[in-house]
Write a structure and sequence with these properties.
Elements: E1 14-19, H1 23-36, E2 39-44, H2 47-53, E3 61-65, H3 73-83, E4 89-93, H4 98-107, E5 111-114, H5 119-177, H6 182-196, E6 199-208, E7 213-220, E8 230-233, H7 237-245, E9 249-251, H8 258-262, E10 269-276, E11 279-289, H9 297-341, H10 343-363, H11 367-376, H12 389-392, H13 400-406, H14 409-418, H15 424-432, H16 453-467, H17 479-489, H18 496-508, H19 513-526
Parallel strand pairs: 1-2, 1-3, 3-4, 4-5
Antiparallel strand pairs: 6-7, 6-11, 7-8, 9-10, 10-11
Helix pairs in contact: 2-3, 5-6, 5-9, 6-9, 9-10, 10-11, 10-16, 10-18, 11-15, 14-15, 15-16, 16-17, 17-19
Amino acid sequence: MSQARPSEEVSERLSILLVDDESNIRESMAEYLVNLKNYSLTSAASGQEALEKFQPGKFDCAFLDLKMPGMSGLELLSKLKAMDKTLPVVIMTGFPSLDAAIDTMRQGASDFLIKPFNLDQVKATLERVVREHRLLKENLRLSERLKQQERIERLNQELSRRVREQQMLHQISEAIDHMHTSEAIYQGIADLAATNLEAGKSAVLLLEPSSDHLVVIAVNGFSSEAVGQVAGRMGQGLLGKAAAGGKAVMGRPETWEETGEVLPLSGPVLCLPMMIHEQPLGLLVLGEKRGGLPFRGEDVFLSRFLLQKAALSVENIALYESMNSSLHSTLGALVRAMEAKDPYTRQHSRRVTNLAVLTAEAMGLELHQIESLKFAGYLHDIGKIGIKDHILLKENELSAEEYQEIKRHPAIGESIVRAMDLSQDECHIVRHHHERWDGEGYPDGLAGKEIPLLARVVAVADAYDAMTSDRSYRPLRTMAEAVRELVNASGTQFDPMVVEGFLQMLEQHQLGPWLDELSASSSSTSS
């Protein structure tokens, strides 16, 4: 083996694994690499020794003898490549053949040296395979970086999708929570589905159990004339099968039949059943997704969330309406029992309620306040059911003791309605409708704005109806006389603002003959 001059071309310190059972070759290679002064050499006399010294990523190149006792160079090559795929391996042999060369290359060898070889060949081979190794490692590094960037991009896209999804879920929840009627919820489903799922058309269908018809209840993108029409039947066609099957269905209907006329659609359609306690309630139909795109799994997820949220709200509204109806029935029975005891009371509660509601509307009160008046105004005297009959039905004036007993009815009434979970406003109407603006009323002696507003409204309506109703112990007053009493008591017994609203209400609803009567009465007095 001839010597070669040291070269300055190999500039980086290299870590080389040399495996050969011939000691003279190992020594010659070591001497040559020592002269280069830029190597780190690890020698092994056998394949087993080489495996014991080998660590993935430690070596820049390996030189393996092909023919060695025990483990051959090809066997060692296979094992090293299994541990480090990027390791350049040069096979050395004194018995060259074409088949051997091809086989080593197939096994992953980077080059082939034939013994005896000039050390210049070693140098050239070393430089070439190390250069290839660096290129391979750089390619792998770049490839890994690209994969990492792709992973980051996918993660960013997934994160963005999830953020958008969460925003949509929040918007859907917020919107549904602010809908307080079934009709508003059904229309909200159609609108929210169209907006969040980018559907050009959406419709909500409800099941009519008696006929198994699916009736359109709300639409977005369709003609409003579709509302109220039958668009399918349970178990039949795409819509009916989706509603009956309880699962989302994506596809194209073969024939629309009557649906095509009621809900004309083209392209892919997404149908999702609405369920309450695993029972079909109706169906959401989506079509004509923007851009002509098909509906995806994400659309199904959002639609299901929307329908589940809506179904829960619909169920809660139905439960509330049922409880409210039951409550009304119970309280109505109590009022009827009270009215049976006192014929005067029979129409008084209704008249007071009507007058109070009209006054509240004239004053511009809010809808929820007016609803409280409609309900609790009818119950304002319900506490009289707890007053003894001989006092309640007495035809002449009450004694001081009897009057004190009568004054208990607002507190009794409040205890009745509070046990039935009425609102605070409604309880206040029952308890405080006999309070006075000057604080001389009962049961709590509240004054001015301490008295709840709705109770002040009922107080005026109650007093007006009492004055204009005939009682056995006093004659009724005319409308003009009753109005004059209200005006005179404004600021003492009654809230001036409510009295003013009451007078405006009388004018607005053409209850104004009292004006002429009041005017004539004033002229007569002045003359």
